[in-house]
Protein: Spermatogenesis-associated protein 20-like TRX domain-containing protein
Organism: Nitrosococcus watsoni
Amino acid sequence: MPNPSVKNHLQGQTSPYLLQHVDNPVAWYPWGEEALVRAQGEDKPILLSIGYSACHWCHVMAHESFENPETAAVMNEHFINIKVDREERPDLDQIYQLAQQMLTGRPGGWPLTMFLEPVKQAPFFGGTYFPPEERHGLPGFKDLLQRVAEYFHTRREVIQSQNERLLDAFEKLDGRSSAAEVEGLNRAPLQAAHQQLAQAFDSRYGGFRGAPKFPNPSIIERCLRDAHGEHITEDEKQQALTMARLTLEQMAQGGIYDQLGGGFCRYSVDEKWRIPHFEKMLYDNGQLLVLYRDAYRLWGNGIFRRILEETGHWVVREMQSPEGGYYSSLDADSEGHEGKFYVWTREQVRALLDDEKYTLAVRYFSLDQPANFEGHWHLYAAMTPEALAEEMKVPAPGLQEQLTAAKQKLFAAREARIRPGRDDKILTAWNSLMIKGMAAAGQALAQPVFIASAEKAVDFVRAHLWQKGRLLVSYKDGRAQHQGYLDDYAFLLDALLELLQVRWRDGDLAFAVDLAEAVLGHFEDKAQGGFYFTADDHETLIHRPVPLMDNATPAGNGILAWSLLRLGHLLGEMRYLKAAENTLKAAWESLQQTPHAHCSLLKALEEWLTPPQIVILRGSGEELESWRAVAAAAYAPRRVTLAIPLEAQYLPGILGEYWPQEAAVTAYVCSGHTCSAPLTQREALKEHLAAQGR
């Protein structure tokens, strides 16, 4: 157990993850000059440990090794030990995850354990979780420490040679073409991506490939957009719709979704989406809200509406700070056990419900089947309410009412349990994903509470994380810190463009333009095209990546190219359009090699090949809102709608040219470089949009 009398160098940090280790007997440092200088001065290798507060196996390794005085003594004797929160320092996490894969040939993950030489901080050995004693083919951590320390001091020439090869490999790993050398862009990667995703699709349970299954929001979005694209056949479009709908339905009914409290867990350990890894991340849920909004627009399905409502209320209830920003995550563990907060015994359920509700709950949540999680039941929807009503031969509305009442009883009882830990730092990039999600959900449901939630988060970011014309990464306990990364700018620009389509605020458009200018000024590779992950005045690390592929969050280059295209078309700003085009050309080789891994860039490519339909509405009051509703009712992924009130003050670029006519509301519809005549009748707008599709 931690020794309260021992304090290390993590005191004064704000990251909940780092503070979890402040009482370890390990002499942890945060990443910074003090630790790096000491490593060089004492000629000791650096033990770099990267994790995050909601990570189950990070907790396990901490309890087994970092709280163990004997293991800590070995670490302190032979290494300079550095702890990093991967959510605050994604630059370090990206670099050393990639290095771990290059060194070991195995996938990365968390906790990440890397050993670095002290001069250039190049890694020479690494892995993820190590047990305290040898098991499952993994060496015991204490023994490994001693062997690594000996290797460092006796094999320096070998390490130096390996480091040179590794750093050279980083240089060659860029994966970019030169924008100037790419003559043209075409739809071939879009077609190839559909084929690759179709081959990987699980036609029985939805999702892609086997267990573990991740939501992969960028891939599901690609399927939805494929169905409305121009690059595949009609049969393939239907296939794409099926892939998206089945996946979203199965996830909504599965245990990866919190059937009582709303919100999705990080991933499912099984192919059927039933048993999750129980951590809930802000970034997953923000992206999934947008997808379920799109699905609700397409199919009007009650299950999609329920997901939007429940998840939106979960965000407001549990994930939004009183100041307005969104918290980062909820832990997988409570009371030292993964999932304990969420699981049930039959007896617990029976004690809370009357006979009728209990009978429904048993069938709906599959409590009549064997326990599915360590002798307990984790709840998932074994069938739809409609199917259950048919089976029980009762009216569906009455059954739904009883089922809702049963869920409310269970939820209220669960609220009395000891809750999982919450990482309450506020991250700009993840807040941006949730701002977009809450704006989307609020628009689809006409739910002003959700829209107001998104506005509060924007205002928080602008007040606390936007300083001297630059973004910062993280905020907690009154402190904002760390220079912003590409994702911070790209995701926030995208979120602002979404929110502006839900309702207009002059300040949000001005903020969007400021973000675009800042990212062009500090992140763009003007020679080759594309955008670096770190700014031009960022700390020098062993690698400066240009991220092109999507991971758990979309690639910053893809989202930024997409957003610059949209903003460029809205304002008539050619610099934005050119920067997006150069990004696509720089990514062209990588796009052709593995298109399905670049869904965010594919969305930008599609936008570049077929410019969006721009709908500008000028008017005021409820009438303007009713026109906006017409344009936003259907799923139209290539449409941008701005309802700009007459009193708007900030209309840069060509936006200032859209003047209202004498009618209460005037609509301007532009596709590519062609605009319609002003429309002054709402029915005329409906007909025009229906004729053009999109």
Observations:
- Confidence is low (pLDDT under 50) at residues 1-5.
- The longest helix spans residues 234-253.
- The first strand starts at residue 29 and ends at 30.
